[in-house]
Amino acid sequence: MQKLNLTKTQKYWLLQILGWSSIVFVETINYTFFIIQRFDWHFVVQFCLLSLSGLLASHIYKNLFIKPSLFEKSLSRIWFRALLDTFFITLTMVVIFFLPLIFTETDLPSFEVFLIQFFGQMMNVARYVVVWIIIYYLYHILNRNKDISEQKLLIETLVKTSELELLKSQLNPHFLFNALNSIKALVLIDADKAREAIIKLSELLRFTLNYEKTLLINLSDEINEVVKYLELEKIRFGDRLDVNIDLEADSLDAKVPPAMVLTLAENAIKHGINHLPDGGVIGITSSISSKMFKIEVTNPGKLKIGEHKGIGLNNIRKRLKSLFGENAEINLSNKLPDQISVTIIYPLTYTSYDKEMLHR
């Protein structure tokens, strides 16, 4: 069965006609069974006239006096305006209803009786107008709130995306500076090693250009680039640098922010191996427990005051917070008297926004 798709205008007129026509049905039942206790076509005609007056009055009044800007005001002003609109639409309807009677009826009631009938009819009609006002106003208020919520969500998404892109773009010069430091001394000393270093650097630069297009990547892909970087650094440090990578098999498919582990490896070289004549071991381990992903990078050295404020670590903190909120942890500590440890823990589950970004 084909679904009936109506335009906004068609829906409006359908609801208008059905809504105001209900007066004929409700009032006919009311008069027939409860007031005069008999069916009278004269009353049905009056109810039809009343229904038509409601349709015309509400539509004309809406177009002339109820502007879209009204629903951008405070709720108190909106509902005060709704009260006034109820009065004026009711008045218009009753005037339209009484005008034909004034010109067609020969036996008009006294002025006092007319006033009683007029205000009595206003009280009766106001019941229907109030329903129309409430439905119409609530529809626009809810639509306005929906638009505001969508705009807010769009702004938050744009801010989040821009913030992540800014943070990732800041890693490029940081990484490039450290990588060039690894090969600058080799250019005049060992041409073959310098050539090998340049090839690895070009592969790493290709990775940094591509990772800016991706929010999260597999740990295995990240580690491949980390290995290239450490091999590049080993050309410079020789026997001073040893690497121990021990990754839990189940964690290889875990998602990580691109260049996160690479940044930790850079820091391990910069703040650890680089300052020690005898060098040392850089260790990288990963594991999964209770749907939480954990990765740890260690290097020789002792934690200095203020070292946790480095550009690389601060970028990682901000990126993790953008992705996982308060569910992500990053801890920098002295694991042993002569060993520094950086541990990152966050959940393996992601928000709907992150899932959408992952498949872009």
Key structural traits:
single chain; 360 residues; alpha+beta; Heat Shock Protein 90; five-stranded mixed β-sheet; two-stranded antiparallel ribbon; 9 helices; 64% helix; disordered C terminus
What does this structure look like?
The protein is of the alpha+beta class. The protein has 2 domains: 146 residues, no CATH class; 175 residues, Heat Shock Protein 90 (2-Layer Sandwich), CATH 3.30.565. The chain is built from 9 helices and 7 strands; from the N terminus they run H-H-H-H-H-E-H-E-E-H-E-E-H-E-E-H. The strands form 2 sheets. Strands 2-4-5-7-6 form a 5-stranded mixed beta sheet, covered by helices on one side. The protein has a two-stranded antiparallel ribbon with strand order 1-3. A hairpin with a 2-residue loop joins strand 4 and strand 5. Helix 1 runs antiparallel to helix 2. The longest helix has 73 residues. The chain is rod-shaped and about 120 Å long. It starts with 7 loop residues before the first helix and ends with a helix. The C terminus is likely disordered.
In short:
The protein has 360 residues and is of the alpha+beta class.
Write the H/E string, N to C: HHHHHEHEEHEEHEEH
Structural class: alpha+beta
In percent, how much strand structure appears in the residues?
A: 5-15%
CA(first)-CA(last) distance = 35 Å
Q: Characterize the biggest β-sheet.
A: 5 strands, mixed
Which parts are unreliable, with pLDDT below 50 for 5 consecutive residues or more?
A: 351-360
**Could you say how many structural domains there are in total?**
2
CATH architecture of the largest domain: 2-Layer Sandwich
CATH T-level topology of the largest domain: Heat Shock Protein 90
Overall average residue pLDDT: 83
Strand order of the largest sheet: 2-4-5-7-6
